[in-house]
């Protein structure tokens, strides 16, 4: 399983509403993520709007394509677009799930196999 980390920028004046929307992510959206190959998916939000996402997937590009093909993702992305600044490189006119910037992994603590 591959690990991926990404970032986006949430509009600072929309942080509370963005957090509230993620307290109750639609069950069909959660099911679509799982069915599309997204695993161990987390979002972290700094108070200036920096959003960091972490996800594990066999193939992130394939998982993204599978999600893009779902009706629930189309609805979710349409609602989430208004929360983002669009300052990410190449983000103009693209939904958030196609605009995030992947961060390279530079360290990973592996489990101790001697235990």
TrEMBL record:
<dbReference type="InterPro" id="IPR008000">
    <property type="entry name" value="Rham/fucose_mutarotase"/>
</dbReference>
<protein>
    <submittedName>
        <fullName>L-rhamnose mutarotase</fullName>
    </submittedName>
</protein>
<dbReference type="InterPro" id="IPR011008">
    <property type="entry name" value="Dimeric_a/b-barrel"/>
</dbReference>
<dbReference type="Pfam" id="PF05336">
    <property type="entry name" value="rhaM"/>
</dbReference>
């Amino acid at each position: 399983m591959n690990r991926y980390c990404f970032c986006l920028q949430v509009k600072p004046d929309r942080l509370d509403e963005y957090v509230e929307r993620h307290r109750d992510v639609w069950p069909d959206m959660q099911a679509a993520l799982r069915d599309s190959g997204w695993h161990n998916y987390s979002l972290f939000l700094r108070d200036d709007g920096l959003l960091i996402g972490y996800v594990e997937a066999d193939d992130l590009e394939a998982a993204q394509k599978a999600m893009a093909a779902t009706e629930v993702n189309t609805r979710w992305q349409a609602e989430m677009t208004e929360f983002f600044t669009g300052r990410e490189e190449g983000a103009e006119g693209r939904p958030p799930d196609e605009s995030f910037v992947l961060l390279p992994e530079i360290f990973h603590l592996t489990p101790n196999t001697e235990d």
